Amino acid sequence: MNLLCQLFIDPGDVILVESPTFVHCVEIFEMFQARCVSVEMDEDGMVPEDLEDKIRKHSPKMVYVIPTFQNPTGRTLSLERRKKIAGAGGAMPSARMATPAALLAHACGCCGAKRICQP
Question: Residue 40 to residues 45, 87, 117: CA-CA distances in angstroms?
Answer without folding.
Answer: 8, 17, 27
